[in-house]
From TrEMBL:
Annotated site location: Important for substrate specificity: 10, 71, 153
Organism of provenance: Tahibacter aquaticus
Enzyme class: hydrolase
Protein name, UniProt field: dTTP/UTP pyrophosphatase
Cellular compartments per GO CC: cytoplasm
Entries under HAMAP family matching the protein: Maf
Cofactor: a divalent metal cation
Active site location: 70 (proton acceptor)
Protein's job: Nucleoside triphosphate pyrophosphatase that hydrolyzes dTTP and UTP. May have a dual role in cell division arrest and in preventing the incorporation of modified nucleotides into cellular nucleic acids.
UniProt record similarity statement: Belongs to the Maf family. YhdE subfamily.
Keyword field contains Hydrolase: yes
Length: 188
């Protein structure tokens, strides 16, 4: 049985695109970057901790396989998590507008006797945005609950000048990499 260790509606929707049945687990993993921790190491660690926390919840289920994922926006070495409020969203978007940044997404599959992971790294370039455009986007409510304060699949798409990499990875679950992991676990 496959379990998704995430309450993200986007991850659920993306995993459903693969045509698999799965159950959702609610895990609470602190998303706190350690001092000196490289951005990719941070994303990898958090994704693994989510999968591990999920596996603890279903350890008694024979054949349980848990998927954990994390996605973060990285600019100038800074990791942009989810904005705490409108001011944080504005600040993130001001820094991102007119520039390119990386989006790192890592997926872990873990079971009682096995664990593997895959990562996806994409480059996204925002078009320049004036203060009115940023304010309107923040007022839409879309930036909340999203790394880097934007949803590439939503209203922010009008401001994305270029994407190199995985569209679904930027959304929060890189489907190619996820599909490869599931195949290696015999779930596809």
């Amino acid at each position: 049985m496959l379990y998704l260790a995430s309450q993200s509606p986007r991850r659920r929707q993306l995993l459903e695109q693969l045509g698999l049945s799965f159950a959702v687990l609610d895990v609470d993993v602190p998303e706190q970057r350690e001092p000196g921790e490289a951005a990719a190491d941070y994303v990898n660690r958090v994704a693994r901790e989510k999968a591990g926390a999920g596996l603890l919840q279903v350890a008694a289920v024979p054949g349980a396989v848990v998927l954990g994922a994390d996605t973060e926006v990285v600019l100038d070495g800074d990791v942009f998590g989810k904005p705490a409020d409108a001011a944080a969203a504005v600040q993130m978007l001001q820094r991102l507008q007119g520039r390119s940044h990386r989006v790192i997404s890592t997926v872990w599959l873990v079971s009682a006797g096995r664990e593997e992971h895959e990562s996806s790294e994409s480059e996204v370039r925002f078009a320049p945005m004036d203060e009115a455009a940023i304010a309107a986007y923040v007022a839409s409510g879309e930036p909340y609950g999203r790394a880097g304060a934007y949803a590439i699949q939503g209203l922010a798409a009008a401001h994305i000048a270029h994407l190199s990499g995985s569209f679904t990875g930027v959304m929060g679950l890189p489907l190619y990499e996820t599909s490869q992991l599931l195949r290696r676990f015999g779930l596809r």
